[in-house]
Every structure is written in structure tokens, then in C-alpha cells.
From TrEMBL:
Enzyme kind, highest EC tier: transferase
Family: Belongs to the acetyltransferase family. NAA40 subfamily.
Location in or out of the cell: Cytoplasm; Nucleus
Family annotation (CDD domains): NAT_SF
Domain N-acetyltransferase positions: 50-191
Superkingdom of the organism of origin: Eukaryota
Record EC number: 2.3.1.257
Alphabetized UniProt keyword annotations: Acyltransferase, Cytoplasm, Nucleus, Transferase
Keyword DNA-binding found: no
Protein name as catalogued: N-alpha-acetyltransferase 40
GO molecular function terms noted in the UniProt entry: histone H2A acetyltransferase activity; histone H4 acetyltransferase activity; protein N-terminal-serine acetyltransferase activity
PANTHER family: N-ALPHA-ACETYLTRANSFERASE 40 (PTHR20531)
Amino acid sequence: MGMKESITRATNLLEFNIDDCSLKEFTTSYFHSSTTKCSKAHKLSSHAERQILDILESNMKPLYLDSKVKWSLDQKRDEMTFHNMRFLVCAERSSNQIVGFSTFMFDEEDGEAVLYLYELQVRGKNRKQGIATHLMSLVEDIALTTGMSHVVLTVFLKNTVAMSMYVKRGYKPHYPDRGIYCDEIMSRSCQ
Ligand SMILES: CC(C)(COP(=O)(O)OP(=O)(O)OC[C@H]1O[C@@H](n2cnc3c(N)ncnc32)[C@H](O)[C@@H]1OP(=O)(O)O)[C@@H](O)C(=O)NCCC(=O)NCCS
């Protein structure tokens, strides 16, 4: 199968399973106190969207302000509503409050079909409970199951917490000769 076909197939596959799925086809992972759902942006309730944007702003604005990259919540909101963007949303069972989420798209990177992770965010008070680990495992399972060659993501060099997690999970610079920037493009092979 060609690269473009792989991307379209993966996007459609997730679209097909997405509306009411709990990702059973993709994972055997189970996270005891929360549910994780996969959805498209327009399927999110406005309440969920508000929580997601609040988490995003409180987590990322300080990191952007500390970098050379301009912070824009409007740009983030636009990015999240790209037609092919997918969300994994992890919410507390008891309160339905969102504790973490990730967003990703199937795309082309350097001539290969990849899963590009756009966001990985955990609410401040829910950190260090394994939520990011859970979301990363799901994302990596999805990439493997859909035949992607890599999971690719971008991380600020100053974001040492996230960087150490990615390194621990086996992520390496995708373009080792890219030069010095405030961020790094990291990837992990699905093989
Ligand atoms: C980075 C982030 C997603 C981690 O979420 P989390 O749910 O707390 O992470 P987990 O509990 O699953 O821990 C995963 C790993 O992250 C690293 N980590 C998490 N918190 C850490 C801390 N305070 N200091 C150092 N490493 C830390 C560790 O490697 C940890 O693995 P371990 O538990 O085996 O030591 C979270 O801190 C966050 O949302 N930060 C702000 C947003 C962000 O930076 N997103 C990534 C953008 S690229």
C-alpha cells in the first residue's frame, strides 16, 4: 500500500470506529478510575472543549512565553478543529472532569506515513498518576495498529519533564542534523 493510501485508510478507520468507540479494537489497556474516548473535534461538547482549552492554556502558555514561539489560543483552537485531527480524552468516571487529553493526525513526514502527536496534556492536579503514560501507550498502539512507521512529536527543549518522559519511552531526534532550535522533533519507530 502506498504512503498516501496508508494515511487515508488510517484516518478513515479511526473515523469509522470513532463515534462511540472506547478503542477496544486498538488496545487492551484499562485505566481504572477514568474512561478514555476517541473523538473528532466537532463531536466534543462545548463543556469538554472549554475544559480542554483551559488545560492547554494553563499548561502551555508559560512554556510558549519562555520560548521564541508566539502563544495564540486562537491558533491552538483552529489547529484542534482540523478535519483529520483526532482526540483521546481521559475523564474521571465520577465527575466526568477531563484530566488529560492528546490530539493527533495521520500525516506524511519525510516521505513516510506517521502518526503526528500534536498535544499531550495532563491537568495540573492530576500529574504523576500515569495519565500521560496511559495516553502515550494508546497513541503508540494506534500508530502500530494502523501501520504507521513512526510516532512523531515536537517538544520544547526547556520542557524537561515531557522530554524525559519521551526519552524514557525511546523517542529520539527525528532529524539529528536539524540544528539548534528551541524545540526538538522527536520520533519513535513503530517496528
Ligand atoms: C508532561 C506531562 C504530560 C506528563 O504527564 P503525567 O501524567 O504527569 O506523566 P506520568 O505520570 O504518566 O509520568 C510519565 C513520565 O513522565 C516523567 N515525569 C512526569 N512528571 C515528572 C516530573 N515532575 N519530573 C520529572 N519527570 C517527570 C517521568 O519520566 C515519568 O515516568 P515515571 O513515572 O516512570 O518516572 C505533564 O507534566 C503535562 O501535562 N505537562 C504540561 C504539558 C506538556 O508539557 N505537554 C507535553 C508537550 S510536548
